[in-house]
Amino acid sequence: MPPGAPIVRGPPPTVAAPIPPAPPPAEGLKAIPQGTPAQQGGPTRLEGFRSERRETQEGGRTVITEPGRVIIQDPSGRSFIRHNEVDRFRYGARDIRTEQRGNETRTIVIRPDGTQIITVNDRSGQLLRRIRRDERGREIIIIDNSYRGPRGFGGFYVDLAPPVLRIPRERYIVEADEASPALLYDTLIAPPVERLERRYSLDEIRYSASVRQRMPSIDLNSINFETGSWEIPPDQASKLQAIADGLNRAITANPRAVFLIEGHTDKVGSDVDNLSLSDRRAESAATLLTQQFGVPAENLTSQGYGEQYPKENVDGPSIVNRRVTIRNIGPLLTGGSASLPPPPPGTAPPRR
Fold first, then answer.
1. Of 46-50, 123-127, 212-216, which gets the smallest average pLDDT?
2. Which of 28, 119, 197, 239 has the greatest number of CB atoms lying within 10 Å of its CB?
3. Beta strand extents in 14-138 (DSSP E only)
4. What would the pLDDT profile of 147-170 be if each residue is shown by its tens digit?
5. At what angle do helices 181-188 and 241-253 cross, to 10 degrees?
6. CA-closest candidate to residue 276, choices 301, 305, 248
7. What is the pTM (predicted TM-score) of this model?
């Protein structure tokens, strides 16, 4: 790997139990009209709920719950965080309903134009499928976690050797502030840097740096959050314009494309605070991309990593380490088939 790449290869997790689902929204899932500020009615700073954290020991791991998040601290030193993705789909929705079908729970977000975003979870709360159904009933499966195939450690962790790069580092990790719109778009649709052995589940991608490492990424350091806050000030929002344009263009070309919005912090503050803060900042960026720039929410997913993957090894403040990273994970979800033209509407992707 080239110097400065934001990948740290540490020990695998010790406990193989699945990562528990995120706690449900405090007030249930309710549609939020278009134009409502994303943060309205809730805290936007850590001190707003730090006192509400609860810590337990489960199977050798430390489990910390806080409003909207669950944080898992593994004995290996690795930490993982999960939040409810459907919560972000509420903005601009006309209605939301939940259905129980056997062992599956379907959360259906209905938009003003009749489009439905359907999230299917199993009995334990794990994501099985994310589907977009248009007003005529035609469906596109955006994420399919229901296939049967090889799974990583605990179903969420895979340890791969670093890929052998055959492209320049500046094309592998693109600095958004220095890149042209054409380079941003090319990075968002770039294929994996190395042949994929199989398709990976969303959890394997979220929680395995060595899997994400197969895809080029875009780093954005120029959004300046206030200390302890995840609210994006209005004067900072415009910095996402070029990336939003590239995302919308890529999703128009391939409606099944999925992009991961990652949050990273420097090493100021506690590990738990930084993990929670980074996850909320990544979600804020994803929400803003949808609300202000029209990027389809269902084609985005977000995840925080705190201080675990620094670009520079600095114990202290670092604008380089405080960043949002964006990468196309569609090929990882499909084993590479996402680089092909999307299937016709109503056609499910091939199962492997």
1. 46-50
2. 119
3. 54-58, 61-66, 69-73, 79-83, 95-101, 104-110, 116-121, 127-133
4. 777 888 888 999 999 998 999 999
5. 40
6. 305
7. 0.90
Q: Between the CA of residue 177 and those of 181, 223, 313, what are the distances in Å?
A: 10, 10, 22
Written as six digits, the tokens of 151 are 């799974």
Give start and end residues of each alpha helix (H) in the chain. Answer: 86-89, 169-172, 181-188, 202-207, 209-212, 234-237, 241-253, 271-293, 330-334
- What DSSP element (H or E) covers 144? strand 139-144
Which residue reads 């062992």 in tokens?
Answer: 103
310: Cα within 13 Å, side-chain hemisphere: 13
DSSP SS3 for 208: coil
- How is the beta sheet containing 61-66 ordered, strand by strand? 54-58, 61-66, 69-73, 79-83
Given the structure tokens 């670009």, which residue do they identify? 311
Helix (H, G, I), strand (E, B) or coil at 169: helix
And the tokens for 266? 């420097």
What Å distances lie between residue 344 and 116, 139, 145, CA to CA? 18, 9, 20
Nearest to 19 by CA among 208, 169, 168: 208
Q: What is the largest CA-CA distance in the chain?
A: 54
Cα-Cα-Cα-Cα dihedral sign, residues 312, 232, 206, 51: positive
